Give the backbone structure.
Amino acid sequence: MLSSGPSVCVTWASCRPAPGDTGPPSISAPSPAPYRVCSPQGRSAAGRRWQRDPPDQVLPQWGEDPPRGPAQGETLVIKVSGVILSVVGGLAVGKEGPMIHSGSVIAAGISQGRSTSLKRDFKIFEYFRRDTEKRDFVSAGAAAGVSAAFGAPVGGVLFSLEEGASFWNQFLTWRIFFASMISTFTLNFVLSIYHGNVWDLSSPGLINFGRFDTETMVYTIHEIPIFIAMGVLGGVLGAVFNALNYWLTMFRIRYIHRPCLQVIEAMLVAAVTATVAFVLIYSSRDCQPLQGSSVSYPLQLFCADGEYNSMAAAFFNTPEKSVVSLFHDPPGSYNPMTLGLFTLVYFFLACWTYGLTVSAGVFIPSLLIGAAWGRLFGISLSYITGAAIWADPGKYALMGAAAQLGGIVRMTLSLTVIMMEATSNVTYGFPIMLVLMTAKIVGDVFIEGLYDMHIQLQSVPFLHWEAPVTSHSLTAREVMSTPVTCLRRREKVGVIVDVLSNTTSNHNGFPVVEAADDTQPARLQGLILRSQLIVLLKHKVFVERSNVGLVRRRLRLKDFRDAYPRFPPIQSIHVSQDERECTMDLSEFMNPSPYTVPQEASLPRVFKLFRALGLRHLVVVDNRNQVVGLVTRKDLARYRLGKGGLEELSLAQT
């Protein structure tokens, strides 16, 4: 509460550099900076083992709003409508990827309890308006998307654990499981209304591959080497797919970055897909009898009455329907030449399509490619063994689908459960595990998984579960960001405005330091975020002097939650010249016990702290508790294991 009448701001003397400092390193601030710039003593940043980005590639400020794209509601509408058009248009895409993204968008919106598009604040879920809660909600939304797509609630939880979450604990597990359960229930309820059987909640997911007859389709121990061989083939083909897609993505980044060119490329891919499909259908003439086929809408193209064109069915059906056909059609339903041509052509079409500026997923195309060559493998095996009863093409189509998808995305645990839930089949759990594990091991020898590869290409600072194996020789001192701008417990408003306006600050957290007197070195007292300082400046929480002593404006936690997540830029906050001379007391708002690490700590230890605790900042201190640097996720994400050892990456500018 402010006192009535005129007030005079309290000013504080500038803190003195710690003994041994030669003065703060140069930081181009709008005015002479009385704040501290903390840097390691006795060693310059240029003397570190790893070279940092040049000045023209300074990383953006952590916590600043990235360039604002479409709001969440607009993103959701575009994503849903886009995937409908992509699938209906016949592109080699799947709908599961956009569904996962849509679930994450919905979860992120629910966690805020308001709509930025509609400019409405519903005043609900205000407690969840913070980064940690939003992160957990997004992980739950991704799991809900998988649950709705495949009717696999447990698979959705494991997918979020394996690929969708950067932090995990037991409390998050039941949250995500609850979201998957609600997603499955809602899907079944809506489908029961759609099918006219209200309250019948036994409907499968949107993508279901049908139930296998476990009594006739058994496997024996002598098939284990065959499954391993299929896993090896899936790993090799997955590595080839990822390598080709990597080259295509690099070409797009360099030459197809303008929106008009991206639209032209999407139109070109659609035209080529349609042309190739018609050419193959016309040239193959693979006509199969309708009796015994599981094709819902048979296409007679160039075939006699009572027959359908199997190549046309493979191309013109939805990809998931084609997968079901390859799994369950009786032996003799497909010609080996048809399967070989379809596998080869669809492999390159799917590789070319993934990465276009369209809503698309890679799960179903990968399963379709694997099911095609897996069924071809089963037909060949049947010829070799004299049509043995165990050499069923549908069984090997299932194994091929798992091997191909595992070789591309390199997931094991979640894919095993998703495949079992989507086929309502536990019998083949062990073969699927064996195939997926083999495909992952073989694929990792050549190139990383598709998701990890695109995370790297987009320069997203994502941390893997473990530090690079050759990073034990690196210490926190060698990877930290330095110099670090430090603030005092009581700092002038003008200094804070200058610090936040300074574009050379490459971190979102500012260590707060204080010395007992001007002759003592300033020691770490806490950590305050850029977003907190923005809110304090917006509400003008300044220390003032009145007739009864020092008073300050009160601020509620709700004020911080209302500003989240799009905090106003510092340029939009007006601070008068008189207010610049006021003082801000950071004691009540800073984190008084931030996580710290000594500068001699190894990189794997720092890595584990970030991963286990879900950190964004880690203050590096010396043996006197003086700040010498700051480690962020970007500092750790720079380093990865390359062919020649540990290499440093450039990171995204957003």
Remarks:
- The two ends are 39 Å apart (CA to CA).
